């Protein structure tokens, strides 16, 4: 009994990829994220759920410093990636975003060819020594994005000419091309039809073999299908975090229960 430690510290501590400690985010006077503490695991899909405006996207953007691009956003606290503070002055946000990739709600391919969309990141990060290596990286990323077969004969056609579902898988291929360790996805299926959604969900399941995946979703069915861990946010607070099955079946907090049973949203 002497060696009892707080419960959450016993669980999976070796597998922690990201740790948030006492994170606050302000937009001017708006306190959008309040006292968030959480450990996000490697090789795991973590879902962020909660009512619109509760801070899911804001907190997601903390993890690759995308909030740096919003003038009025101010962040306090610490976010550690493999134990290192990503807000340290020595960290270059562009390098960080190669390690922590992001996929947005609306597919946003560059107005370039399919090939150049995927080759862009590897080029700026110097990941290929020659054209043959770059070709290989592009093919591998498109295969991981589960879109290779559909585009291999038209790699030099425009990325923006693809269907919505294909564009989103292209954006996922673009995000994985730099070999990130973490993939952040902000409602990646909200612009997609059910078939494209199923394809992206299958892909997310495969990606967790290699990455830590964090997905914001307003679909509780989707959270239940794709994630192993779920975090419920409400009015800027992380109210409850745990195994997805537990959050949905035996929520501990009244606010979580109300949300998942449809009483707030
Ligand atoms: N760029 C911004 N400027 C000012 N306020 C913002 C900005 N982005 C989000 N907010 C505010 O922060 C809060 C959380 O928003 P957000 O993170 O987008 O929530 P969610 O993704 O859960 O819908 C909301 O009150 C929203 O109005
Ligand atoms: Mg959002």
Automatic annotation (TrEMBL):
InterPro entries: AAA+_ATPase, ABC_transporter-like_ATP-bd, ABC_transporter-like_CS, P-loop_NTPase, PstB-like. Pfam families: ABC_tran. GO terms for molecular function: ATP binding. Keywords: ATP-binding, Nucleotide-binding, Phosphate transport, Transport. CDD domains: ABC_PstB_phosphate_transporter. Residues 18-260 form the ABC transporter domain. It comes from the Bacteria. NCBIfam families: 3a0107s01c2. This is Phosphate ABC transporter ATP-binding protein PstB.
């Amino acid at each position: 009994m002497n060696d009892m430690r707080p419960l959450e510290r016993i669980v999976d501590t070796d597998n922690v990829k990201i740790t948030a400690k006492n994170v606050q985010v302000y937009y001017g006077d708006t306190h959008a994220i309040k006292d968030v503490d959480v450990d996000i695991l490697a090789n795991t899909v973590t879902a962020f759920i909660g009512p619109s405006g509760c801070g899911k996207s804001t907190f997601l953007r903390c993890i690759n410093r995308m909030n740096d691009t919003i003038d009025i956003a101010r962040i306090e606290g610490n976010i550690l990636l493999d134990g290192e503070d990503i807000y340290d002055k020595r960290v270059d946000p562009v390098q960080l975003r190669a390690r922590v990739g992001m996929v947005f709600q609306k597919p946003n391919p560059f107005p370039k060819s399919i090939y150049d969309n995927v080759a862009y990141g590897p080029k700026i990060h110097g990941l290929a020594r020659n054209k043959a290596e770059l070709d290989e990286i592009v093919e591998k990323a498109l295969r991981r994005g589960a879109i290779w077969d559909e585009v291999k004969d038209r790699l030099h056609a425009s990325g923006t000419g693809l269907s919505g579902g294909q564009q989103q898988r292209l954006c996922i291929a673009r995000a994985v091309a730099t070999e990130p360790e973490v993939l952040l996805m902000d409602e990646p299926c909200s612009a997609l039809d059910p078939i494209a959604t199923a394809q992206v969900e299958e892909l997310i399941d495969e990606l967790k073999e290699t990455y830590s995946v964090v997905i914001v979703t307003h679909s509780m069915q989707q959270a239940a299908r794709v994630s192993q861990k779920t975090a419920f946010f409400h009015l800027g607070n992380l109210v409850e975090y745990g195994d997805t099955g537990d959050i949905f079946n035996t929520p501990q907090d009244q606010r979580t229960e109300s949300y998942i049973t449809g009483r707030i949203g």
